[in-house]
Amino acid sequence: MKILVTGGVGFIGSHTVVELDRAGYQPVIVDNLYNSNLDVLKGIREITGKDFPFYNIDCNDTEKVRELFEKEKFDGVIHFAAYKAVGESVDKPLNYYENNLISLLVLLRTMKEFNVKNFVFSSSCTVYGQPEQLPVTELTPRQPATSPYGNTKAIAEDIIRDHVYSRPDIKAISLRYFNPIGAHESSLIGELPNGVPSNLVPFITQTAAGLRASLTVFGNDYDTEDGTCIRDFIHVVDLAKAHVKALERLNEEEKDNYYDVFNVGTGEGYTVLELINTFEEVNGVRLNYTIGPRREGDVEKIYAQSDKVNNVMKWKAEKTMADALRDAWNWQLKITPKK
After folding, report:
1. Which residues form the NAD-dependent epimerase/dehydratase domain (predicted)?
2. Domain ranges of the chain
3. Active-site annotation holder among 25, 55, 96, 149
4. I need a surface site. Which of 264, 265, 294, 315 has the fewest CB within 10 A?
């Protein structure tokens, strides 16, 4: 089966390309390189021994997307391509609504035109806002999003649901990620943001490598054990494997108009300071960090209940937070220029 992977040069997308290949799928990569780097394709090639088709296309470009579907004849789509920085979305909400929602509409319309039936969407636990009870299940009511980024994911889920229910010939799954971290154990691919990282772990590894003076922890006055935010940190390879399981689930499902959502997390919550302490412990590195004010848009605490994805999709997180932080540091050491 030939699978379109939008944002396939990005952090989660590149690892998913590798796992799709391992599972016998034929990935085709689309990325506009807005927040990614072509060097990632070399890492994918070294891991898999294969050159997968790559197209530098913006998913908002209807004509280019149509031309791609005409050429490649896809059996399914995994849609990662989106802006994803919480803080930036607060500053530039219109950019986020335009990019994240129009690209989704273009893909769904093109899939309809070319009769492509299987769709896996990269969603987020941010759709839960600040939940009233923890851990969150898929039945936990969605609270108002705390950022425009989170709201784009909630709106996108609604669009997909309504589209699936209106069409007898499309099936879709939204995977609500918790906090992906780590890198491939080969250190050939990992998180490689352009400019200043918006995610915690690459900022940690860049600080530890001396590329940044210090890390700012946003707030230590939350209602948690040490005052810092609580998150469910999941290894990116485990998350990538969940996308393969989602495709298998769609292929097995005989019901038309099938749409479902799944939390993809470990089921464990850790504070930001616990993450930092674990990083220092497993890697033998001291990290220079300071405590700053809270960051607008951040949720105080959230972690998953993963029973549904464990039981329905037969997926379970296998790697620990320590594994992920060790892999992330090894990746950083590999890509940091030698002095």
Report:
1. 3-265
2. 2-181+235-265
3. 149
4. 294
- Single-letter amino acid code for the residue at 88: E
> How many angstroms separate the CA atoms of 321 and 303, rounded?
14
Contact 80, 53 (CB under 8 A): no
Task: Judge if pTM exceeds 0.85.
Answer: yes
pLDDT higher than 80, residue 184? yes
- Provide the phi-psi class of 38: left if phi over 0, else alpha when psi is between -120 and 50, else beta: alpha
Asked if residue 135 has a cis previous peptide bond (ω within 30° of 0), the answer is: yes
Residue 46 corresponds to which amino acid?
A: E
Contact yes or no for 287/208 (Cβ under 8 A) = yes
Active-site annotation holds for 149: yes
Q: Provide the CATH topology of domain 2-181+235-265.
A: Rossmann fold (3.40.50)
Query: What is residue 339's predicted lDDT score, i.e. its pLDDT?
Result: 66
Q: Which of 298, 282, 137, 325 is nearest to 230 (CA)?
A: 298
Q: Which tokens belong to 203? A: 């900022």
pLDDT in tens, 190-239: 998 888 888 899 999 999 999 999 999 999 999 999 999 999 999 999 99
**Would you state the structure tokens that stand for residue 2, as one six-digit string?**
């030939």
Question: Quick count: other Cβ atoms within 10 Å of Cβ 280?
Answer: 16
Residues forming a β-bridge with 174: 121, 261
Could you say which DSSP state residue 313 is in?
Answer: S
Task: Give the other-Cβ count within 10 Å of 167's Cβ.
Answer: 16
In three-state secondary structure terms, 213 is: coil
Task: Please name every residue paired with 259 in a beta bridge, in sequence order, or none if there are none.
Answer: 172
